[in-house]
Structure formats: C-alpha cells, structure tokens
Amino acid sequence: METCRVRGDSIEVFKFLNRSYTLDADIFFEYDKGNRRSHSKKLLKRRSRLDVRKYVFGNRVTDKWNNLPQCCISC
Fold first, then answer.
1. Which long-range contacts (CB under 8 A, 24 or more apart) does 59-66 make?
2. Could you tell me if 12 and 64 are in contact, meaning their C-beta atoms sit under 8 angstroms apart?
3. Residues 14-52, buried b or exposed e (16+ Cβ, 10 A)?
4. Whole-angstrom Cα distance, residue 72 to residue 12?
5. C-alpha closest to that of 61 among 4, 13, 2
6. Does the chain have fewer CB atoms within 10 Å around its N or its C terminus?
7. Global confidence as pTM
C-alpha cells in the first residue's frame, strides 16, 4: 500500500512540474536555487512547526522526489 502511494505521488509531482496541469506548481513547491549535485528540478521542503503542515502533499513528496536520479526527472 505504501509503495502505491509513493508511486502515485511521484507521478503527480512530475505532472505538476512539467505543466501537465492548469494549476501552477509554485502553489505547492519551491525550487532549490542552490547549485548542488543532484538533478535540475530539486525542490525545497518548507519548514513546519505543526503536524498539520508536515503531512501536506508538498512536504510529503519532497524528500522522495529529490532522491530520484536525473534520468527519471528528465524523461
């Protein structure tokens, strides 16, 4: 069950960032401006003090998205 949710979330993030939806990705995500080693569409995880914000879609998928290799991001 966990892997199905992770896979579905990753597909939705890919659609948001590649403009498949009419909604703007800037609502959910912020891009990392630093020049670090990983892929070009690295996302920032927003800090949250309360548990309500910790489990929102944008914060839930950021770590998993940033760990993907460049070949998966640029396909």
1. 60/9, 61/9, 61/10, 61/12, 61/13, 62/29, 64/6, 64/9, 64/10, 65/10, 65/13, 66/38, 66/42
2. no
3. bebbeeeeeeebeebbeebeeeeeebebbbebeeeeeee
4. 14
5. 13
6. N
7. 0.69
Structure tokens at 40: 């070009």
pLDDT at position 60 over 70: yes
- Which amino acid, 1? M
SS3 string, 19-38, reads CCCCCCHHHCCEECCCCCCC
Q: Quote the distance between the C-alpha of residue 68 and its chain's center.
A: 10
Domain extent listing, the chain: 2-73
Contact status, residue 38 vs residue 65, Cβ threshold 8 Å: no
Q: In the block, which residue shows the tokens 């489990």?
A: 55
3-state secondary structure of 46: coil
